Amino acid sequence: MNDDSPKPARRIRYKGTHPKSFKEKYKELHPEQYAQDVAKVMQQGRTPAGMHRSICVDEIMEFLNIVPGQIGLDATLGYGGHSLEMLKRLVPGGRLYATDVDPFELPRTRERLELLGFGPDVLVVKEMNFSEIDRIAAEAGPLNFVLADLGVSSMQIDNPDRGFSFKVEGPLDLRLNPTIGKSAAELLTNISRYDLEDLLIVNSDEPYFEPIAHAIVSKIAKGTAIVTTTQLQKTIEEALEPIPLDNRKEDVKKSCQRCFQALRIEVNNEFGVLDRFLEKLPDVLAPSGRVAILSFHSGEDRRVKKSFKSYFREGIYSEVAPDPIRPSAEECNTNPRARSAKLRWAIKA
Ligand SMILES: C[S@@+](CC[C@H](N)C(=O)[O-])C[C@H]1O[C@@H](n2cnc3c(N)ncnc32)[C@H](O)[C@@H]1O
């Protein structure tokens, strides 16, 4: 029989744990529809792809002490886990402003929270860098609380198109907002060996900064492109070939983590925008307003600590965290991404 009618569209088959491309992973792209699979993955101490597990939620909520009617800001909306907890506490009468620079994940999170009953009357989401926190305060008035959960979300890391992970092939991008600025690949194209060494030292204390910078810059000078995640990973591996075989695998992995982090910090100007955010914070907080900052990198934590202490000495903050709060051992066991987290807080005088 000759049947010319078009075949019905088929859902792409989910091939267990190894679908060919991220776009085929419909479970990861819509985790909310697969509650059982998500629960199973979390029980195994892993983060389901396409989701982000919020860190130190209890500790943050206890400190922020949000009550109905308050107005606050979640400066790093991400998957919206912290926002959701804040929203539950500030209704009725309150309002949450939430910012993120990610133009892809932000609308998905807004929609998810709206489906949970938090529409624009209580949740105002803005695609904006938190360095412009003064613009939020100009609209919202003095803020009772602010949270910043720095760095990247698991959704960003898991999506190969974003280039955050050296474990999967993807464009070497690393921008939180890929529609502005230069990608990591573009940055490498024109960087000098000296500037690259400096970047690797300042942004992530890379001990092998010399051979790695040399390998990258000479490869590009010879006309070999480094424009994908695995091309960079391979270059780092080649640069570390002189390391004895026993330690090499682990050293290469750690250097890859640090180099990707250093490039991410650079292309997103992460230290610069954090400095601006910290400078502006006292002016946007209401008297007795509370701020909590969760950081994952010593360069970030140092900045937060220095700023909080300096404003405390000036009497602008009445109280600051004497020491950083760390996630519980239980949280670190069930969510390894929590292990490097440090939480600091301050209260406006
Ligand atoms: C660790 S995730 C936040 C996760 C979130 N707390 C949750 O519970 O799902 C960090 C988020 O901050 C965003 N981000 C990083 N730097 C930013 C900045 N300067 N301004 C606004 N958003 C930023 C990232 O795009 C990412 O979505």
Walk me through this protein's architecture.
The chain is an alpha/beta fold and 349 residues long. The protein is built from 15 helices and seven strands. It has helices at 26-29, 35-43, 57-64, 81-90, 105-115, 133-140, 154-158, 184-190, 193-204, 209-221, 229-239, 245-267, 270-284, 298-313, 329-334, and strands at 71-74, 95-100, 123-127, 143-149, 285-295, 317-320, 342-348. Strands 3-2-1-4-5-7-6 form a seven-stranded mixed beta sheet, sandwiched between helices. The chain is globular and about 60 Å long. The mean pLDDT is 91. S-adenosylmethionine is lined by residues 52, 54, 76, 78-82, 99-102, 105, 129-131, 149, 151-153, 176, 273.
Give me some keywords for this one.
349 residues; alpha/beta; 13% strand
Instruction: Write down the Rg.
Output: 22 Å
Helix amount:
40-55%
Q: Quote the distance from N terminus to C terminus.
A: 82 Å
Structural class, from secondary structure content? alpha/beta
**How many individual β-strands?**
7
Biggest sheet layout: 7 strands, mixed
The distinct ligands, each listed once, are: S-adenosylmethionine
Whole-number mean pLDDT: 91
Task: Summarize the helix and strand pattern as letters.
Answer: HHHEHEHEHEHHHHHHHEHEHE
User: What is the overall number of helices?
Assistant: 15
Low-confidence stretches: none
Task: Give the neighbour order of strands across the main sheet.
Answer: 3-2-1-4-5-7-6
Overall 3D shape? globular
β-sheet strand percentage: 5-15%
